[in-house]
Design goal:
This protein is of the alpha/beta class. The chain has a domain at 91-109 and 225-422: Rossmann fold. It is built from 20 helices and 15 strands. It has helices at 15-21, 40-46, 51-63, 69-81, 112-130, 143-152, 171-178, 194-206, 208-213, 224-243, 260-271, 287-294, 318-325, 330-343, 350-359, 367-381, 387-399, 418-422, 432-435, 451-461, and strands spanning 3-5, 30-32, 91-95, 98-102, 134-139, 158-165, 185-190, 216-217, 250-255, 275-282, 296-297, 346-347, 360-364, 406-410, 445-447. It has a six-stranded mixed sheet with strand order 3-4-14-9-10-13, sandwiched between helices. A five-stranded parallel sheet has the order 8-5-6-7-15, with helices on both faces. Helix 3 (51-63) packs across helix 4 and helix 6 runs parallel beside helix 7 (171-178). The relative contact order is 0.14. The structure holds pyridoxal-5'-phosphate (PLP). Pfam families: PALP, Thr_synth_N. Keywords: Amino-acid biosynthesis, Lyase, Pyridoxal phosphate, Threonine biosynthesis. One of its GO terms (biological process) is threonine biosynthetic process.
Length: 462
């Protein structure tokens, strides 16, 4: 399989070059040159595979022979050996219409582990094969940083530096990042906001000389390897229900921020998985809800919510979807993204909006509705939702029709967001792995928020 850019100005490249490139050199996003189509027979033959076996089948379609099968198998097995549940991503039945796909059984109790455990191993493999050093630089508002650090800590050939806004991530998230004491990890606590951190990263990556001299690589959710890893659990969850005769077509409900996770679901749909509709759940930052309902993509005013990992105005993976909506027409995508840059909005015509609404339904969950869903499902089903998952479940309650079966993706363990859950008087006990973090020493360097402050630290570290 080769990869091309949504803007059409990058010559086709292989899988490994695609994961190393991150953002495409022409400013677009990398996509596979074609999407593999699965026959009903092929789907049937996958139905009883373990998570790891299924992941291997799916990655093989997208990697081809660039990584030998035995190596790919080892990468997959190593990546999911760190998960605490033997099913990796188990499905829990809540009632006849609703099942929860628990994606939080990895090392940092957030769904990002599913992709970043794999990407970490992949980077280590590539570093070994090409005998080159990989320096990862990223910014986080919480979950990505912890998960990326866990993905590469102690690994040969890789160093990672993560910027987070000092004192502005949740306590558990801060501890998950800063209690790691491996020599290849540097945590910079930046005097500023998450936006400051992101701007610094963007500018350092744009400094081509600096980027090449220090072999900088990205770990953000536009990396195609992350999308592919997330596609696996849509298939796996569907098979769990289909095997029990509980559904032959399902909805998936996805708490959405940067459109990465739900794009993985869209990819599964395009490959032939029998998905009825993708329910796109946002919080009060509802640019994507407005796009699905009205066909207008335009950032609104930033709102702080109980689901901070979804507090996003411009969704970095959205361009991938536009590319398919416009029939893989890179000229159209280039024009639309140019328009977005100039006018700050994109409006699509009625026929395109109809195509969007054939696959997606969307709902923006208000802060109180999110907490209501946590209280209601706790009282009624004795099941504790984290605030991100609660948005997905609340959207399902609004948008799933009678008789439909919905699998709601659970993107974080409730212990990570205890502050919100306590507002409804619900007490939880932390898993022992999280409890243990509170006794460990922290390693972080507090730095000023200028590019030079960060560069000085990087030059010392790399
Ligand atoms: C990152 C994240 C999301 C949003 O996922 P996207 O791929 O950015 O849409 C939702 N929930 C949690 C807990 C997350 O960490």
């Amino acid at each position: 399989m080769e990869y091309i850019s949504t803007r059409g100005q990058v010559a086709p490249i292989g899988f490994i070059d695609a994961i190393l490139m991150g953002l495409a050199d022409d400013g677009g996003l990398l996509v596979p040159q074609h999407i593999p189509q699965l026959s009903a027979d092929m789907l049937k033959s996958w139905q009883r595979l373990s998570y790891q076996e299924l992941a291997l089948e799916i990655f093989t379609l997208f990697v081809n022979d660039e990584i030998p099968c035995a190596d790919l198998k080892r990468l997959v097995d190593d990546s999911y050996a760190t998960f605490r549940d033997e099913d990796v991503t188990p499905v829990r039945r809540i009632n006849n219409g609703l099942h929860v796909l628990e994606l939080f059984h990895g090392p940092t109790f957030a769904f990002k582990d599913v992709a970043l455990q794999f990407l970490g191993n992949l980077y280590q493999y590539v570093s070994g094969k090409t005998n080159s050093i990989i320096h990862i630089l990223g910014a986080t508002s919480g979950d990505t940083g912890a998960s990326a650090i866990e993905g590469v800590r102690g690994k040969a050939g890789i160093r990672i530096c993560i910027l987070h806004p000092h004192g502005k991530v949740s306590k558990v998230q801060e501890l998950q990042m800063t209690t790691v004491d491996d020599a290849n990890v540097l945590n910079l606590a930046v005097d500023g906001t998450f936006d400051d951190c992101q701007r610094i990263i963007k500018e350092l990556f744009a400094d081509v000389d600096f980027k090449h001299r220090y072999h900088l690589r990205a770990i953000n959710s536009i990396n195609i390897a992350r999308i592919l890893a997330q596609t696996v659990y849509y298939f796996y969850a569907y098979f769990q229900l289909a095997n029990k005769g509980q559904a032959d077509k399902v909805n998936f409900s996805v708490p959405t921020g940067n459109f990465g996770d739900i794009f993985a679901g869209y990819l599964a749909l395009k490959m032939g998985l029998p998905i009825n509709k993708l329910i796109l759940a946002t919080n009060e930052n509802n640019i994507l809800e407005r796009f699905v309902r009205e066909g207008v993509y335009e950032p609104g005013e930033f709102r702080g919510t109980y689901s901070p990992s979804m507090d996003i105005q411009v969704a970095s993976n959205f361009e991938r979807y536009l590319y398919y909506l416009y029939g893989e027409d890179s000229a159209a995508v280039t024009r639309l993204m140019g328009q977005f840059k100039a006018d700050g909005r994109i409006a699509i015509p009625a026929d395109k909006l109809a195509a969007v609404q054939a696959d997606f339904a969307a709902y923006g969950v208000q802060n109180e509705e999110c907490l209501d869903a946590i209280s209601d499902y706790h009282a009624k089903y004795d099941y504790l939702l984290d605030p991100h998952t609660a948005c997905g479940v609340a959207a399902t309650d609004k948008l799933a029709d009678d008789g439909e079966v919905t699998i709601a993706l659970s993107t974080a363990h409730p212990a990570k967001f205890d502050e919100a859950i306590r507002l409804r008087g619900i007490a939880q006990t932390y898993p022992p792995q999280i409890e243990a973090l509170f006794d460990k020493p922290q390693h972080q360097t507090v730095v000023g928020g200028t590019n030079d402050d960060i560069k000085d630290q990087l030059v010392k570290f790399f």
